[in-house]
């Protein structure tokens, strides 16, 4: 089979993965505390081409591309003032902790609310935990003290969906809770759109390469088939 088809197809698959990542980032451009992802690509390897008659080196041929890893930019982003008493943000390093059905998870999204039992909950209804890792109880006036909400240092933070992270809590973090604020999303919409357009162009180039190779093979097959001995 024509090697070029595999090379072009691998490029298309890599760009599809990249586009899914960029689309997810764009969908969360307004999500408080969202952390943008990055993907790394590399070549499968290279093949050294040479002239079969003279042995002279012609050059190198890439064998296709692949996505090697996903990384998440966990750096803190600027805070936005909302003046909502249950909007909380971590100023600096650290994560809020919430109790989910799957266990304790961590988040930077502090758009919290009042639960039915008078506790502080996230947008999914998960109880927000205090420094003692117990649910935070709201005051009689429906507010919450910043010191009542835990901020934890988390090692190996990994996205688990719905703005939640898994990881290992290593005790209190250096960041502090700021009420009436939310952390901005980590997505730069303009930059991400430019990356998306570049990825689409790369995908289209690989698609055109496959079409050209297919037409060449079809033409060669027809010509060979029409030859008489």
TrEMBL record:
Occurrences of domain Flagellar basal body rod protein N-terminal (ranges): 5-35
Signal peptide limits: none
Keyword Metal-binding assigned: no
This protein's record includes keyword Kinase: no
Domain of life: Bacteria
Cellular component aspect of the GO annotation: bacterial-type flagellum basal body
Any one biological process term the GO annotation gives: bacterial-type flagellum-dependent swarming motility
Flagellar hook protein FlgE/F/G-like D1 domain: residues covered: 89-137
Compartment list: Bacterial flagellum basal body
Record key words, sorted: Bacterial flagellum, Cell projection, Cilium, Flagellum
Domain Flagellar basal-body/hook protein C-terminal: 179-222
Family: Belongs to the flagella basal body rod proteins family.
UniProt name for this protein: Flagellar basal-body rod protein FlgG
Gene: flgG_2
């Amino acid at each position: 089979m024509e090697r070029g088809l595999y090379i072009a197809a691998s490029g298309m698959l890599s760009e599809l993965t990249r586009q899914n990542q960029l689309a997810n980032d764009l969908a969360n451009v307004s999500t408080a505390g969202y952390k943008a992802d990055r993907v790394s690509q590399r070549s499968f390897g290279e093949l050294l081409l040479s002239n079969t008659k003279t042995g002279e080196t012609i050059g190198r041929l890439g064998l296709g591309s692949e996505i090697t890893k996903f990384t998440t930019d966990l750096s803190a982003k600027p805070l936005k003032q909302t003046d909502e008493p249950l909007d909380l943000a971590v100023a600096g390093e650290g994560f809020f902790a919430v109790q989910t059905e799957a266990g304790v998870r961590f988040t930077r999204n502090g758009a919290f609310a009042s639960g039915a039992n008078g506790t502080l909950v996230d947008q999914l209804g998960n109880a927000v935990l205090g420094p003692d890792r117990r649910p935070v109880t709201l005051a009689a006036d429906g507010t919450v003290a910043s010191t009542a909400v835990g901020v934890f240092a988390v090692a190996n933070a990994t996205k688990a969906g719905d703005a939640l992270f898994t990881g290992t809590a290593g005790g209190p973090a250096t960041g502090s809770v700021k009420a009436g604020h939310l952390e901005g999303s980590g997505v730069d919409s303009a930059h991400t759109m430019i990356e998306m357009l570049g990825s689409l162009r790369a995908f289209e180039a690989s698609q055109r390469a496959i079409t050209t190779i297919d037409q060449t093979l079809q033409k060669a097959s027809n010509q060979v088939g029409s030859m008489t001995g």
